[in-house]
Design goal:
It is a single chain. This protein is an alpha/beta fold. The protein has 2 domains: 105 residues, Rossmann fold; 89 residues. It contains 7 helices and 7 strands, in the order E-H-E-H-E-H-E-H-E-H-H-E-E-H. The strands form 2 sheets. A 5-stranded parallel β-sheet has the order 2-1-3-4-5, with helices on both faces. It has a two-stranded antiparallel ribbon with strand order 6-7. Strand 6 and strand 7 form a beta hairpin. Helix 2 runs parallel beside helix 3 and helix 5 runs antiparallel to helix 6. The two termini are 40 Å apart. 21% of the residues are buried.
Length: 227
């Protein structure tokens, strides 16, 4: 796993790097909070970061606060490292956005244990995100099938009726042909509108469909997305 280290102490950076590499991780080393912040803004940023609280300029706790502001649903696991061990300091660090807190001096065993907790948390977050995406896809697919089914039935029914009349009657009143054509056209436009709406949705509103099953309410979702 790629892990970011940010510490202004070369000795601490060296200790952390050697430990992480020996455990099979890839390390991204930063000498201060500004470097760490720059790396964490990239699209390929490490998902786990070990930040020293006290660094010149942008310190670790400030990086945590900026990460919370940057990520609406925070995906990066942040571990603060500091010599501060007062309960008030720990609370301050966690409230700033840190996920865990290690006090100096720390033992390798403690660092490894906390890293493993972080990795498990990231794995659970990833699984939860994937589950939510799957749920959204399921709800969307169900809604699309429900909404498109009715106009599609109209298209097929009128097309079949038109084909039947064309095959059995020499002369079909023009008004009948127009009636079927208009019905098919309107149903086709409805399907087109549904597909267009699906592509433009930014917010989702669901409605009951059958017992314990919900589907997207396209009209309500479109209205919510336009606000």
């Amino acid at each position: 796993m790629r892990i970011l280290i940010a510490d202004d102490s070369a000795a601490i950076r060296d200790i952390l790097s050697k430990s992480l590499v020996s455990w099979g991780h890839e390390v991204v080393v930063c000498e201060d909070g500004a470097q760490a912040w720059d790396v964490l803004q990239r699209s390929d940023a490490p998902k786990l970061a070990i930040l020293d609280w006290e660094m010149p300029g942008l310190d670790g706790i400030s990086v945590c606060k900026k990460m919370v502001e940057k990520e609406e649903n925070k995906e990066t696991y942040l571990i603060l490292v500091t010599s501060r061990d007062a309960t008030s300091d720990i609370v301050q660090g966690l409230e700033a956005g840190a996920d865990d807190y290690i006090t100096k001096p720390f033992k390798e065993e403690e660092l490894l244990a906390r890293l493993n907790v972080g990795i498990r948390m990231l794995d659970m977050r990833s699984k939860l995100v994937n589950f939510e995406r799957l749920q959204t896809l399921t709800v969307t697919a169900g809604a699309a099938a429900h909404e498109i089914n009715q106009p599609l039935t109209v298209v097929i029914g009128n097309a079949d009726m038109l084909a039947l009349k064309l095959g059995t009657v020499d002369q079909i009143p023009s008004q009948d042909i127009m009636k079927y054509a208009v019905s098919i056209s309107e149903a086709g436009k409805r399907i087109s509108d549904i597909v267009k709406t699906m592509g433009e949705l930014k917010k989702f509103v669901v409605k009951p469909y059958v017992k314990d099953v919900y589907i997207i309410d396209f009209d309500a979702s479109a209205e919510a997305s336009s606000k």
